[in-house]
């Protein structure tokens, strides 16, 4: 009984406590207890898959249990797991096939029969699993053809439950790699279903038709007549399923008829949910296959009027975008727009008709933008129409705002008009403040025609307006404020935290090292182009007046609000006169807050005032050095703290400081040369490019390292012993960049020697990568012509996959394409494809891809394929297994930083592990963790130790360990609970192994 | 998977409800009312599957009692349709000719049976003897 309860309601926090008990029960002698235990484990798997990872082999045991019930219970777990990752369980296919064969063959005890069909639900479950396993995999599919055939044959008794099995069979046959005989049988089955007089069967048949129709459109042709009959079926559910089929087979030729049918159904239907989905489908079809403009507009009109306000907001938005962006053909655009304008005018002519708000909004927008295209229509008429609309009571104020916008737009290209005057007069005294504001705006705009023309250019709706979200045009103001000694802005939560920690009186050292690595990425996104700002600042003055929906101008009100809530006015700031000033302060502070690291800014406050002044100056100069001012240079060298803070963010600084640095650093600067060119360009781009930006410096830095080597140690290169070179490289980065603060992963000499030995195997890494820690080169796949090798390089900022393609033939291979497929858990930083234009005979080509983990999992698979021009075997598939550890890097920090970060993180995971006698002391245990998991040991205090690491790019995870009486208590904290779980699992594994 | 399992009579009174996904209490009554309205409005010659919002209803009528099951896309409608019958057969066996009153007064038993058959929205047991085994043990304990 308790086990049943466990499998029904259970909090995830309690799993570690109960898990061992349940594991014990798996060995119980009574089958029912074993079954319940498996069910409880299934529940655990559902709520926290990470925590039951280590008992996967027990699931396998359950699958082979001699009792059917236990086996059946374990199928649920497998169904879930295979859904997640089908490639991991291919080896079980045979067992599933065997089980199904036995079930179908009637080998089960008689009481499992239901209406003389053996365990039908079990069969269905198995078929489902097989379907998942065999998807797109010819080899696995082959294994199951026989058994599928068998089940099809056995399930010929006329009973509902056999139909259910047949249906599942058909589904499976169509999902796995196709085999013509089976497909034929399945098609026959579907035919039987569809033609059946029983209504439920008909439904089932239609449903399977929808599933298979895309693979086999001919099937639809066979059942044409039935489908048409079903369209007029009295049961709306059948009708809807039929429409679903039609939706799948729509093409350019039949679209008009199908859409007509759908609209008919829509008009009859009352249920809101059905309307929403169906109207979405109609709109999609209309956009995709519209034969001509007139039809398209009419259809969309119908959709809008039928769909009403329940419509998905994307539909009107897409429609408007289509109108605004138009096609390639200018003439066609105009036709479409003119047609739209005319049709809306005729619709509006009819008095006393009710239209949904969304439709009205669309109408008013189109009229406002394109009414002048219909040259023979007097704008006065349009204005009267809109005016009369405004007076109607059913129009909401939201829609009224749209209409007003349209009126304003029309007004901008017509000379004076009586209707507008009337309108202004009428609404200037309106009770609705919104309307009143719009009316006043219109009035003022009319007085200044030039401004109006500028503001509302004709047909500019799709010209992108650049809004500078980071408000960087206020940088100058911030700099000024800061140079006068104002404290930099800190975000609200940070200030609170500081207060908190100060109250607790933790001891701070004044110059705590910053954990730049964790914050750097956010810092970089924060800073955007200072040049793309012109628009925002120019119009911000006007925007309060216009407040237009379409003109994306910066709204003053919005910013003041932001400032009020979060803002923090510097002490010495002169009181704000102009509206721009508080704005400047607020956003400047925002900016500064983003860039400065918390501990650094804290130390600012502690330090003396003069110190602070200098800091500010530096902050300002580091901030604006990218803009071309060289003022910062003289200051830069003196203050290490500041430059450290901006390590990654402003590489340019470093090139400039190089003047006073040693000649070695000059060489560094020279390699930074190209970077200088790329960075400003990159800055213009927005976030999308931040990855490349982040990576470039680091790539460069490894290059620099190479260059320096060549520079400094020509002698050692002359007598090129490999070991010599390596030892040089490990020494040089330390000395070279002591001032430059470039973060380089410093590989330990031993690791290097190891790797040097390893890379003697087939293909070898290029020099600059060889110095980073990396895995062995392993073979991925091979064919007669091509062999693929892979080497993982654990770079500091990403996992670099170096793929070697080696041509085994005696002739050159042309255009070899390497493509990584999209994987759920991983993100490839550049394009996932790579093309080798030619691989010479017997030679090796290399390509590199940087990978991040997107969604946390302990182990994942990155599939890919390589293809080359050849008659045979055009495509070679492979998969790369990546584990969480590939993405874990040590994170250096001080004890104080650790304390602060610890408080700010909330996702806790705790676990006690038994320590083996060989690793009884804390320090040995920690060093195991350090070596195996790449954790960084922050500090060891008594019997407690703290460690830190980060998941690439910058998700921190902190670990607190304590030993007592042979146990090691682990306590993880990280912003993301899956990361803690995953790391805990790895820790357990490592500790067990050692 | 199965989202909920309902037994409702023709008057719209809910006799049994079991949810496998969290639904707010006050939303449940609304949902039940709408579901039964949908089922009652259908005639005998219409099919027993209804698309309702983003899930499907499978229903079966036994005299004045409706059994309605809400499922999502991945479930096989016909299999669930038969599951309902299986469930009723089990009830029939346990109560020997089950009636609405049996269900009203032995709600705990019915729940135990249902929990044996469906767990976390999955069909876990369909063998009649095995479903009833724990219940018989309980009855024995109660007697002695």
UniProtKB/TrEMBL annotation, chain A:
Listed Polar residues bias regions: 530-545, 653-670
Membrane topology: Peripheral membrane protein
BP terms from Gene Ontology: intracellular protein transport; vesicle-mediated transport
Domain AP-4 complex subunit epsilon-1 C-terminal: 889-992
The keyword Membrane is assigned to this record: yes
Compartment(s) where it occurs, according to its Swiss-Prot or TrEMBL record: Endomembrane system
Regions of compositional bias (Basic and acidic residues) in chain numbering: 546-555
Start and end residues of each stretch annotated as Disordered: 522-555, 594-614, 648-676
Pfam families assigned to the protein according to its UniProt record, in alphabetical order: Adaptin_N (PF01602), AP4E_app_platf (PF14807)
Keywords in alphabetical order: Golgi apparatus, Membrane, Protein transport, Transport
GO terms for cellular component: AP-4 adaptor complex; endomembrane system
Subunit: Adaptor protein complex 4 (AP-4) is a heterotetramer composed of two large adaptins, a medium adaptin and a small adaptin.
Function: Subunit of novel type of clathrin- or non-clathrin-associated protein coat involved in targeting proteins from the trans-Golgi network (TGN) to the endosomal-lysosomal system.
Family: Belongs to the adaptor complexes large subunit family.
Record protein name field: AP-4 complex subunit epsilon
TrEMBL record, chain B:
Pfam (any one): Clat_adaptor_s
Signal peptide segment: none
UniProt subcellular location: Endomembrane system
InterPro entries linked: AP_complex_ssu (IPR016635), AP_mu_sigma_su (IPR022775), Longin-like_dom_sf (IPR011012)
Gene3D superfamilies linked to this entry: 3.30.450.60
Keywords attached to this entry: Membrane, Protein transport, Transport
AP complex mu/sigma subunit domain sequence ranges: 1-141
UniProt superkingdom: Eukaryota
Membrane topology: Peripheral membrane protein
Keyword ATP-binding set for record: no
BP-aspect Gene Ontology terms: intracellular protein transport
Gene Ontology cellular-component annotations: cytoplasm; endomembrane system
Subunit structure, interactors included: Adaptor protein complex 4 (AP-4) is a heterotetramer composed of two large adaptins (epsilon-type subunit AP4E1 and beta-type subunit AP4B1), a medium adaptin (mu-type subunit AP4M1) and a small adaptin (sigma-type AP4S1).
Family, per entry: Belongs to the adaptor complexes small subunit family.
Physiological role: Component of the adaptor protein complex 4 (AP-4). Adaptor protein complexes are vesicle coat components involved both in vesicle formation and cargo selection. They control the vesicular transport of proteins in different trafficking pathways. AP-4 forms a non clathrin-associated coat on vesicles departing the trans-Golgi network (TGN) and may be involved in the targeting of proteins from the trans-Golgi network (TGN) to the endosomal-lysosomal system.
Protein name: AP complex subunit sigma
């Amino acid at each position: 009984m308790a086990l049943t309860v466990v499998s029904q309601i259970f909090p995830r926090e309690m799993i570690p406590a109960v898990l061992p008990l349940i594991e014990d029960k798996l060995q119980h002698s009574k089958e029912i207890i074993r079954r319940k235990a498996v069910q409880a484990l299934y529940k655990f798997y559902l709520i926290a898959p990470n925590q039951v990872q280590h008992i996967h082999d027990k699931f396998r045991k359950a699958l082979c249990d001699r009792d059917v019930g236990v086996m059946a219970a374990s199928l649920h777990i497998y169904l879930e797991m295979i859904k997640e990752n089908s490639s991991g369980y291919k080896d079980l296919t045979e067992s599933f096939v065997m089980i199904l064969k036995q079930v179908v063959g009637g080998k089960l005890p008689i009481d499992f029969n239901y209406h003389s069909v053996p365990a039908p639900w079990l069969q269905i479950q198995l078929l489902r699993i097989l379907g998942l396993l065999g998807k797109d995999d010819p080899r696995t599919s082959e294994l199951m053809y026989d058994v599928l055939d068998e089940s099809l044959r056995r399930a010929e008794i006329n009973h509902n439950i056999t139909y259910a099995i047949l249906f599942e069979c058909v589904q499976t046959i169509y999902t796995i790699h196709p085999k013509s005989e089976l497909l034929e049988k399945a098609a026959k089955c579907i035919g039987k279903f569809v033609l059946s007089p029983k209504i439920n069967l008909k439904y089932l048949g239609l449903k399977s038709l929808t599933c298979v129709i895309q693979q086999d459109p001919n099937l639809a042709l066979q059942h044409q007549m039935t489908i048409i009959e079903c369209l007029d079926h009295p049961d709306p559910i059948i009708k809807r399923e039929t429409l679903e089929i039609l939706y799948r087979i729509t093409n350019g030729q039949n679209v008009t008829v199908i859409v007509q049918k759908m609209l008919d159904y829509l008009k009859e239907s009352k249920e809101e949910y059905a309307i929403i989905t169906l109207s979405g489908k109609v709109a999609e079809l209309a956009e995709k296959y519209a034969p001509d403009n007139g039809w398209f507009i009419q259809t969309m009109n119908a959709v809008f009027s039928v769909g009403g306000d329940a419509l998905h907001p994307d539909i009107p938005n897409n429609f408007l975008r289509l109108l605004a962006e138009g096609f390639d053909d200018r003439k066609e655009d105009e036709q479409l727009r003119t047609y739209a304008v005319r049709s809306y005018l005729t619709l509006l002519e009819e008095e006393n008709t009710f239209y949904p708000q969304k439709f009205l909004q669309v109408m008013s927008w189109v009229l406002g933008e394109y009414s002048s295209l219909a040259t023979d229509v007097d704008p006065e008429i349009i204005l009267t129409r809109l005016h009369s609309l405004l007076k109607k009571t059913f129009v909401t104020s939201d829609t009224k705002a749209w209409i007003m916008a349209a009126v304003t737009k029309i007004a901008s290209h017509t000379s004076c008009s009586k209707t507008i005057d009337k309108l202004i007069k009428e609404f200037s005294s309106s009770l609705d403040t919104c309307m009143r504001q719009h009316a006043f705006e219109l009035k003022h705009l009319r007085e200044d025609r030039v401004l109006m023309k500028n503001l509302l250019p004709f047909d500019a709706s799709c010209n992108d307006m650049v809004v500078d979200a980071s408000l960087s045009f206020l940088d100058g103001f911030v700099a000024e404020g800061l140079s006068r000694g104002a404290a930099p802005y800190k975000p609200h939560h940070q200030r609170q935290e500081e207060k908190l920690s100060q109250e607790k009186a933790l001891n701070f050292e004044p110059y705590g090292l910053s954990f730049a690595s964790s914050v750097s990425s956010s810092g970089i996104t924060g800073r955007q182009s200072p040049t793309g700002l012109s628009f925002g600042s120019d119009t911000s003055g006007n925007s309060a007046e216009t407040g237009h929906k379409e003109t994306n101008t910066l709204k003053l009100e919005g910013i003041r609000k932001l400032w009020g809530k979060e803002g923090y006015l510097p002490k010495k700031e002169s009181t704000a006169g102009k509206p721009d000033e508080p704005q400047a302060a607020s956003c400047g502070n925002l900016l500064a807050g983003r860039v400065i690291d918390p501990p650094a800014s804290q130390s600012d406050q502690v330090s003396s005032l003069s110190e602070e002044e200098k800091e500010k100056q530096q902050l300002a100069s580091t901030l604006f050095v990218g803009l071309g001012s060289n003022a910062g240079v003289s200051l830069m060298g003196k203050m290490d703290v500041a430059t450290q803070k901006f390590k990654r963010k402003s590489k340019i600084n470093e090139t400039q400081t190089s003047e006073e640095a040693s000649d070695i650093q000059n060489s560094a600067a020279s390699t930074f040369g190209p970077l200088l060119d790329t960075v400003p360009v990159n800055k213009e781009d927005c976030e999308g490019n931040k990855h490349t930006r982040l990576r470039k410096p680091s790539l460069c830095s490894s290059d620099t390292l190479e260059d320096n080597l060549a520079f400094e140690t020509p002698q050692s290169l002359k007598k090129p012993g490999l070991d010599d070179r390596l030892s040089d490289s490990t020494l040089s980065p330390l000395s070279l960049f002591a001032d430059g603060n470039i973060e380089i992963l410093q590989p330990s000499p031993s690791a290097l020697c190891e790797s040097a030995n390893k890379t003697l195997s087939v293909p070898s890494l290029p020099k600059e990568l060889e110095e980073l820690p990396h895995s062995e080169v392993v073979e991925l796949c091979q064919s007669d012509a091509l062999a693929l090798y892979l080497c993982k390089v654990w770079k500091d900022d990403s996992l670099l996959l170096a793929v070697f393609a080696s041509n085994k033939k005696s002739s050159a291979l042309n255009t070899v394409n390497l493509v990584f497929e999209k994987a759920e858990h991983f993100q490839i930083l550049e394009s996932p494809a790579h093309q080798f234009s030619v691989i010479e005979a017997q030679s090796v080509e290399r390509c590199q891809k940087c990978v991040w983990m997107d969604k946390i999992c302990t182990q994942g698979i990155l599939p890919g394929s390589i293809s080359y021009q050849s008659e045979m075997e055009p495509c070679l598939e492979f998969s790369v297994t990546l584990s969480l550890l590939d993405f874990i890097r040590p994170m250096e920090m001080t004890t104080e930083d650790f304390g602060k970060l610890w408080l700010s993180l909330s996702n806790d995971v705790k676990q006690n592990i038994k320590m083996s006698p060989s690793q009884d002391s804390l320090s040995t245990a920690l060093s195991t963790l350090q070596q195996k998991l790449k954790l960084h040991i922050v500090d060891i205090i008594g019997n407690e130790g703290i460690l830190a690491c980060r998941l690439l790019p910058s998700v921190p995870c902190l670990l607190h360990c304590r030993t007592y009486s042979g146990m090691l208590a682990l306590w993880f904290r990280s912003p993301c609970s899956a990361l803690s779980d995953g790391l805990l699992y790895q820790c357990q594994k490592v500790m067990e192994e050692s | 998977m199965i989202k909920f399992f309902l037994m409702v009579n023709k008057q719209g009174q809910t006799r049994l409800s079991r949810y496998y996904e969290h639904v707010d209490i006050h939303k449940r009554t609304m949902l039940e009312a709408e579901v039964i309205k949908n089922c009652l409005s259908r005639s005998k010659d219409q099919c027993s599957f209804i698309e309702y919002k983003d899930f499907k209803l499978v229903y079966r009528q036994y005299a004045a009692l409706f059994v309605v099951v809400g499922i999502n896309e991945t479930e096989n409608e016909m299999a669930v349709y038969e599951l309902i019958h299986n469930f009723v057969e089990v009830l029939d066996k346990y109560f020997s000719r089950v009636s609405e009153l049996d269900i009203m007064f032995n709600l705990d038993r019915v729940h135990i049976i249902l929990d044996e058959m469906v767990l976390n929205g999955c069909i876990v047991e369909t063998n009649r003897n095995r479903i009833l085994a724990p219940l018989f043990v309980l009855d024995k304990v109660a007697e002695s």
